[in-house]
Amino acid sequence: MKFTGFYFSCLLVLFLSCESKKLPVLGSPDHHIRHFAFINQDGKNITEKNFEHKIYVADFFFTTCPTICPIMKKQMLRIQKQFRDNENILFLSHTIDPDHDSVSVLKDYAERIGADTKQWMFVTGSKDEIYKIANEDYNAVVKKDGKTSGGFAHSGALILVDKDKKVRGIYDGTKEDQVNQLIKDIPILLNEYN
Amino acid sequence: MIVLKKFKIFFILLTILLVLFFVSCSDQKDIKKQQNITTGMMLYRNNCANCHGKDGEGLNKAYPPLAGTDYILKNKNFLPCIIKNGLNGKINISNTTYDMPMPPVSLTDIEIAQIITYISNEWGNNTEITNRDEVIESLKNCKN
Questions:
Q1: Do A66 and B61 touch (CB under 8 A)?
Q2: What is the mean pLDDT of the segment spanning B27-51?
Q3: By the CB < 8 Å criterion, does B139 face chain A?
Q4: CB A102 within 8 A of CB A137
Q5: Min distance A68 CA to chain B CA atoms (Å)
Q6: Residue B66 and residue A141: Cα distance in Å, rounded?
Q7: CA of A18: how far to CAs of A25, A167, A169, in Å?
Q8: According to CATH, what is the number of the domain A31-191?
């Protein structure tokens, strides 16, 4: 009798631990990434419609950034390598220095760092729109700062967005362990749609 | 007999002293070089590794590698200018053309010397210490 009870408890524990983990939804219940309109490295117009039915990882950077951006890009490359053949995930890097980072500058930059631009887009656009969406929707903390090396202060955040444009994770792109976590979380998020 | 024995002991002691003297003299130089390399490594990690990588590997065609190229040892006199003033325009390293601007790095002359000592003695390179005077001299001849 005792043994049977114990046996079934074990089964229950095993069953519960097999229950698929879900990523939290960050922000208020109706918080989501708003409509946006940018231009990518190939000069194409990019809106949220390009991300319909996809999850994506977003970040904010600028090409002349001497400090955290190279590290973030290296990490993004690592993530892209993992999910290269997965058509359910895209990557979206926004420049926070649109005055300097024109379409051709972004194209050159993307090629030089070795990004697959079919899956990973580098966009420019209106500075106001980029800063607003960065700070209010993605929570990436972006601002012009004369005292910071490079002239712009921004967090190295990588933001994971689901198919409903909700934020499901924010990771420090300069920290390898956090990027490792993001790499683990992506399949968990993709699994929600199976 | 006793005299011979005393002479033997004296001779042995003298030999030991001479060996210690020579060993410690060369050690001094090595110690100084090692200190510079260690400080240079810390400075490199804080100022250069973001783009050039912790292991000097660079990043694809964006940031050139410092490891596995003879550029460092062949251009030692030019390195202080690159570090202090940054670099614009095309540069060819390991059969790849790099064209992204390198920003200037705000460092003292001695810090530049220590970084150069580090990068020219790491990743398979091995050369003399770079000292502050050499850096100052090089900086006088930077081309615009």
A1: no
A2: 93
A3: no
A4: no
A5: 7
A6: 33
A7: 21, 25, 22
A8: 3.40.30.10
- H/E stretch holding A120 reads strand A120-124
Query: Can you give the residue range of the structural domain that contains B133?
Result: 33-140
Which band of pLDDT confidence, cut at 50, 70 and 90, is reported for residue A141? confident
Number of structural domains (chain B) is 1
CB distance from A63 to chain B under 8 Å? yes
Does the interface ipTM go beyond 0.85?
no
Unique residue bearing structure tokens 């999850």? A55
**CATH number, domain containing residue B123:** 1.10.760.10
Decide if A43 touches B, using CB distance below 8 A.
Answer: no
Is the Cβ of A71 closer than 8 Å to some Cβ of chain B? yes
Which positions in chain A touch B51 (Cβ < 8 Å)?
66, 70
The DSSP bridge pattern shows strands A157-161 and A152-154 to be: unpaired
Residue A106: how many other CB atoms lie within 10 Å: 24
Has residue A116 got a pLDDT over 60?
yes
